[in-house]
Amino acid sequence: MIRRRWLECALVMAGFHHVTLPAMSPHSKPFAPFPLLAAVPPKRFAAELKALEQGMLTLLQSRYVVTQCLAYLAPNGTWVAYVQQADQAARAWKGTRQEIPGRRVGIDLVELWRDPAGARTAALTMTAQPVDTQGHYLLGYFTLAPRQT
User: Fold this and answer.
1) How far apart (Å, rounded) are the C-alpha atoms in residues 85 and 35?
2) pLDDT tens digits for range 48-61
3) Which of 15, 38, 65, 104 could form a disulfide with 73 if both were Cys (CB 3.0 to 4.6 A apart)?
4) Contact (CB, 8 A) for 143 and 68
């Protein structure tokens, strides 16, 4: 309860005045990786999401296939903040950030997490420019599976 209250206060101080946190109970399932961002149907920004997916898969040398995609509108382009939130979400399933060979830090907005057994893998990407007139960036959170050869 203290952690929830701290989060609510931090959000108000950060300028998120109209945010309602999801209800929490001891039996709640883990929530989405970005509970404070507006989730959007992938079809709404299909072209942009496809470009993010293709860029991510190319950088990962097509070793994976996408099994699920979640799309979010982010009010600012603060990549590091979203990566930190994804780090926190990955900790729930014991995922750790992986090195991506060939990734250009600060240019290629892609991160990868995998659990120790290799049973769960996720990637995060973000557009370099806003996708709407309100200045929102698009985040793509992809659940991945190894490509069968």
Assistant:
1) 10
2) 999 999 999 999 99
3) 38
4) yes
The structure tokens listed for 48 are 């942009």
The two counts, helices (H) then strands (E), for the chain are 3, 6
Give the span between the Cα atoms of 127 and 71, in whole angstroms: 11
Length of the chain: 149
* Residues ≥6 apart with Cβ < 8 Å to 7: 21
DSSP sequence for 104-120: -TTTS-EEEEE-TTSS-
Q: Is the pTM of this model over 0.85?
A: no
The pLDDT, as a whole number, for residue 4 is 47
- Is 46 within 8 Å of 140 (Cβ atoms)? no
Q: Which residue(s) pair with 111 in the sheet?
A: 124
Determine the straight-line distance between the first and last CA of the chain, rounded to whole angstroms.
47
Structure tokens at 43: 């079809």
Find, among 76, 87, 89, 85, the residue nearest to 16 by Cα. Answer: 76
